[in-house]
Amino acid sequence: MIKPQDFENVQAYSGFTPLEVGGHILTIKSVEETKSKAGRDMIVVYFDTDRTDKQPNYFSEQYKNNQKPDKKWPNNAIVRQLVLDAEGNTNRGFKTFIEMVEKSNPGFKVQWGNNFVACFKNKLVGGVFGREEWLDNSGISKFSVKHQHFMTVEDIKRGVDAPKDKLLNPSGNDNGPDIYADITPVDDGGNLPF
């Protein structure tokens, strides 16, 4: 075999350190207003672990070290949240996000209207992460660490237990429906959103 010309310039895969389950202090990088595939109002929150977190700048380091030409901001550092629920009322997850950001940043109040998305940039919020089971293309069960919900930074500092694993088949039998069967990944484009 002939040595490839760019062999010396390519970075080899090294050990991967997963994000620890439990609580993390997050910095909001960007918030976008958009629509879901069904045409419902939603926000998209992009975040990183804060420099004061136990795993600082985790997602930005992951992005920076990604050598793929079409690299994207890590999907487990993005939360999509509907603004209204199925009945047309304020979605509890949306309200929770707003309140957790306000309580985590003394003196901060959300600016409704034209400055809504911009007011979140660089604000702190707490996030709880847990393991979720998924199947690879061979049908082998694996786990990913994903964002579960928002909390205040103070709650994270006091300590948060790791949530129970989210299993594909929590009952342990194969008779139930696959609740994840119709989930499709979202392509957010190749550039950083902020």
Walk me through this protein's architecture:
Residues 174-187 have low confidence and may be disordered. The chain has a 5-stranded antiparallel sheet with strand order 3-2-1-4-5. The protein contains 3 helices and 5 strands, in the order ββαβαββα. The chain has a domain at 16-65 and 74-158. The chain has 194 residues and is of the alpha+beta class.
What is the residue-mean pLDDT, rounded to a whole number? 87
Count of beta strands: 5
Helix-residue proportion: 10-25%
Structural class: alpha+beta
Question: For the CA atoms, what is the radius of gyration?
Answer: 19 Å
Could you state the order of secondary-structure elements as H and E? EEHEHEEH
Strand content: 25-35%
Low-confidence stretches: 174-187
- Strand order across the biggest sheet? 3-2-1-4-5
Instruction: Profile the largest sheet.
Output: 5 strands, antiparallel
Query: What is the approximate shape?
Result: globular
How many individual helices? 3
Distance between the termini: 43 Å
